[in-house]
Design brief:
about 375 residues, alpha/beta, Rossmann fold, 2 domains, 9-stranded mixed β-sheet, 5-stranded parallel β-sheet, 16 strands
Length: about 375
């Protein structure tokens, strides 16, 4: 039996430039900055994929925006086993909902959110969980290897689970970052538990891998290559990551941890910008986003840089990206394509194909890019 739990506020902090969505104060600030969560859309993509193969399926879930709304919108049957105590939900609500769904007999629970939401699911299921879990990516930080590469991939895995009466599962790490510490420039993912996750090549994402200390020289060289390509009069939207942090260091500025800064002529003009601030910056003149590859996962867009929304990327024009990464990051993907997941399938299709990556002064690599939401399942 399939279960579903949705964190209704997952991802709301991303477009607001807050690098996370934990806590009522952060969520309020995100809304004040014009941000909204896209979690219901992401849940809907997973469920409509499941419903296409198993119409009328019963799904064990929580009431309202924590699951039932999305289940019913997809034409499936919601069997509600949990109701949140208030109109606003918290981490405790996620924990209680996951526990109730598992207790009701779900053998695979789709959890829609980010790393923090999956951390709550791990708390609900205890140290030796027997219920399988699959994350539907809808948060800001998704470093853990417990997520599908896209909502449709999650729905396809759930459909396979129903068709085949289950799938092999593998213990995968639940990682999260202390958001309060991160805003003080302390960025260190912590292991919070393990979850049994169904895994199939191309449908589940890998764990985020840090850059080894031995790669410092390669990172510095890649950053030098990017800096050499930067021109006066162009606004650069400098994304998060170790390689882009090295770009900032070589420019003589201190970038915001896990944020996106707007640079003009070697100076930061907007720090930790929101989606709306990025749109305003792009409207002022020529601009380009400077991004790197998430090690191990291969994501370029849609993981930790949601401020670079589809609207911002479209506003950047036909050549929106300056991608910088050490060559070893590409080698470590073992031929797997880079990934884009902007939430806009038309834009993802435009970005798919190949991208030129700056790997050093005068050195580039042409590498394949795929859009998981458009990949045949």
């Amino acid at each position: 039996m399939i279960g579903l739990v949705v964190n209704p506020v997952a991802g709301v902090g991303g477009p607001a430039g807050l690098a996370g969505s934990d806590g009522a104060d952060v969520q309020r600030l995100a809304r004040e900055r014009g941000s909204r969560s896209r979690v219901q859309e992401r849940a809907g993509l997973a469920l409509t994929t499941l419903a296409a193969r198993h119409p009328g399926l019963d799904v064990v879930t929580a009431a309202g925006p924590m699951g039932a709304d999305a289940v019913e919108a997809a034409g499936l049957v919601a069997r509600m086993v949990h109701r949140p105590d208030a109109s606003t939900t918290s981490a405790d609500d996620t924990t209680r909902a996951v526990a109730a769904v598992a207790a009701a007999g779900a053998d695979l629970v789709l959890v829609v959110g980010g790393d923090g939401t999956l951390r709550d699911a791990a708390v609900a299921l205890g140290e030796q969980p027997s219920t399988a879990v699959l994350g539907v990516p809808a948060g800001v930080k998704m470093y853990s290897p417990v997520f599908a590469v896209s909502p449709r991939a999650a729905g396809a895995l759930a459909a396979d689970w129903v068709s085949e009466g289950g799938l092999p599962v593998f213990d995968r790490e639940v990682l999260d970052i202390d958001e309060a510490a991160m805003r003080r420039a302390v960025v260190s993912p912590t292991l919070f538990g393990m979850l049994p996750v169904p895994s199939r090549v191309g449908r589940t994402q890998a764990r985020k891998a840090g850059t080894p200390a031995g790669e410092k020289a390669a990172v510095e060289a890649a950053a030098r290559g990017a800096v050499a390509r930067m021109r006066r009069g162009i606004r650069y939207l400098l994304g998060p990551g170790g390689t882009t942090a090295e770009v900032a260091r070589q420019l003589g500025v201190e970038g915001s941890p896990l944020g996106i800064d707007v640079l003009l002529d070697g100076e930061i003009v907007v720090r930790a910008a929101s989606e709306q601030q990025l749109l305003a910056a792009v409207a002022e003149g020529p601009a380009k986003a400077v991004i790197t590859v998430i090690g191990g996962q291969g994501f370029l867009l849609g993981r930790g840089n949601q401020q670079l929304s589809a609207s911002v990327l479209r506003a950047l024009g036909d050549d929106p990206l300056l991608v910088v990464a050490p060559e070893q990051k590409l080698i470590d993907l073992h031929g797997r394509p880079l990934l884009v997941d902007t939430g806009d399938s038309e834009l993802d299709a435009r970005l798919a194909g190949h991208v030129r990556i700056v790997t050093g002064p005068g050195a580039t690599s042409l590498y394949a890019v795929s859009a998981p939401e458009l990949t045949p399942l």
